[in-house]
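Hi,

I'm pasting everything inline rather than attaching a file, because the server keeps stripping attachments. The sequence lines come first, and each chain or strand is labelled.
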Amino acid sequence: MLKKVTVFGLFFALVPSVAWSEWQLNMNRGVTDTSASVYDLHMLVLYICIAISVVVFGVMFWSIFHHRKSKGFEAHQFHDSTSLEILWTVVPTIILVIILFPATTSLINSYDSEDSDIDIQVTGYQWKWRYKYIGEDLDYFSVHTTPADEIRNKATKNENYLLEVDRPLVLPINKKIRFLFTSNDVIHAWWVPAFALKKDAIPGFINEDWTRINEVGIYRGQCAELCGKDHGFMPIVVKAVTEEDYAIWLKQQKMLKQQEALASKQSWSKEQLMAKGEEIYNKNCAACHQPNGMGMAPVFPALKGSAVALGPIETHLDIIFNGKPGTAMSGYGEQLSSVEVAAVLTYERNAWGNDVGDMLSPADVDKLKGGK
Amino acid sequence: MSTQATDMVHDEHDDHGPAKGIGRWLFSTNHKDIGTMYLVFSLVMLFIGGSMAFVVRAELFQPGLQLVEPEFFNQMITMHGLIMVFGAVMPAFVGLANWMLPMMIGAPDMALPRLNNLSFWLLPFAFTMMIGTLFMDGGGPNFGWTFYAPLSTTYAPPSVTFFIFAIHMMGASSIMGAINVIVTIMNMRAPGMTYFKMPMFCWTWLITAFLLIAVMPVLAGVVTMMLMDIHFGTAFFDAGGGGDPVLFQHVFWFFGHPEVYIMILPSFGVVSHVIPAFSRKKLFGYNSMVYAIIAIAILSFVVWAHHMFTVGMPFAGELFFMYTTMLIAIPTGVKIFNWISTMFRGSMTFETPMLYSIGFVILFTIGGLSGIMLALAPVDMVYQDTYFVVAHFHYVLVPGAIFGIFAAVYFWLPKWTGKMYDEGLAKLHFWVSFIGLNLTFFPMHFVGLAGMPRRIPDYPLQFADFNMVVSLGAFLFGASQLIFVYVLIKTLRSGEKAEQLPWDGAEGLEWTLPTPAPYHSFPTPPKVD
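And the predicted assembly:
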């Protein structure tokens, strides 16, 4: 007994993560009518498949058990039967037609994205999502927030490990929401299992899909199409709230936006910018250029000692703002506020032994923005 | 002129053996030697590709990043797929075709021996180049074996160019091999052997060869378009230049779907030899088996976009590809029912080739059934790009292609080498493989349904338990292949002498040859009635 306990104890000591895991076997029913119909279809086909296997394998194992040479069974020499061949062509055809009826209905339903209440443009970026509430002047990025220490096994992993973001997509329940998917760089796929909704976000294309959420809650998903290095680290979090809460949330977001605009008018000291810059850098830039600015040659160049970070401030700003065509560097002009651009630029020019010594104030960025 | 011709004919009647030294292999035009080289090459690739899967499973043993960086993880999954498809499975089938086709149709050799030599010797260079990319600046291909643009063009590491040329060489090799198969089968069958008297393995390979000739140029086309996009300023797949990233997927899967049948049809052929032999009964429904293969091959050209249900196709397209995909289930079902009817009321014994064939039928059926589930477009919105898909295609490819190859090797090894393998060890190889395989791939269905995307180096905690099981299964499955190598070495070094007909139920011209099979199979064609 004692030995058994030690063995188990050892097992769990070696495997600390087991505490949060579960032996889930099947798909969830989800929280939309579409996901429920998908689930029902899945179960129907699953049962049909199990029934087919029971019959087919049943005959086979019965035969394996009885018709063996070791039991003295003599082979019966028959090798053709047109009626049997017709039978096992026709029966599967009938089964397939039975399955195709609900499948076709369900597909028709999922293509009906007319008459939406809310339209949201979802844009995939390497490696984050951008949500634009069409007609609401609200547009933000959603970046994963799982601490590097948890990923590197230096800290205990939290319950929502790899499934947490800084700003979730907030949606009201009982409204028809139409999504417009596109991408800024490579192909991504936006997937929330609870909605049974998965659609590719493709550069140059706009794909449509829709959902209507029935229950308040937080629903988590992940990018489903290999999109490069951090494909596993661009989760999706949807917070479904009541209509009233949604209206309040929208108002709050607009106020926050105004405050942000005011912040860029204030004067910022270099120390303030450096501190803010480090935070912004680690969130947006470190995935490729690395926290120590060393990059990953040759695709992701080092910033430490780089000609750009040490060169004219205008070129540096231009690359942060508009990206570098033909490379993995995308433009951050739309994604970062003026304060953030100023901060990250100042940080890159003065961190890791880079010592240009100059800085750019948010007001300057605003001015240049106006100029463009 | 006429004397010269007589001399040559005379020369061929001399019973000369293989050339001495390395020249035997470098300049070989002998179907058996080339077949052996293909098979050994594919075994080496199986271990290289397998060790990459080992890296992947070791990293996924627990949540968190432990062993490799995500960048290298992506290179591993990409190379694992490419090597297994183009390096392990396809060359193994060409090797089997080389060994068996002349022996089965009563020919002395393949029809185009020099082409045969070239098609093999392209491969080591192609794969050296492709594996070499791992050591280049920026690493090897990291965009998945499906290499979707623009991840594989604008955003690819510089080594992608070498990858493109390696693919071109593999494609050229496959096309040459396919031409050789077709010419051999069409022209060199023994007198009296009509198409509908041909062994099933020849039929399946004939159809496979046509598929190869039809789709390998499409693959060559798509990688050439990538090359142009990367180096010559075109914009086939670059939306910024008016191109279309989805076009890449259509062209790729127009190659890719027939490709999966290329990797399964020859196994169908092998199993159609092994099951009758150990059931001591003729193959049930030979004609309908042939028609089923032809139907599968034709249908395979009109189902490709079922790999792309989430790209946002129009409704009619989605419906079309859902229906055609479902249709494939019918001829595939016919094949399975025929195999089972062959076993039914036979007098079965269960030597290793038979065990592998029964394993093939069971596991391939499971993979086929999950294929029906995946064919349903509305549900595929959930399955797509999850581990459910990974489970599905490993269930059809590992037991399908690889078990088929094992069955073939154990079945014909006595004829090839003149020696008998160790039955006990071979059965051990089967059982450990069978358990390891199911432990690896069955739980993948569960994590896929629970929502785990494929191709991620790290995963949320709810998938931890099953991933650990999967990794343990994968290590077991990988280790069991060492038993296979040991069995092979033991057979060659100290196997007992095999009889001319080691399996009492086996039929076919190959068994009429002495054991081991002579260097030139049938100098004078046998008569078939």
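Chain B touches chain A through 100 residues (CB under 8 Å).

If the labels don't parse on your end, tell me and I'll reformat.
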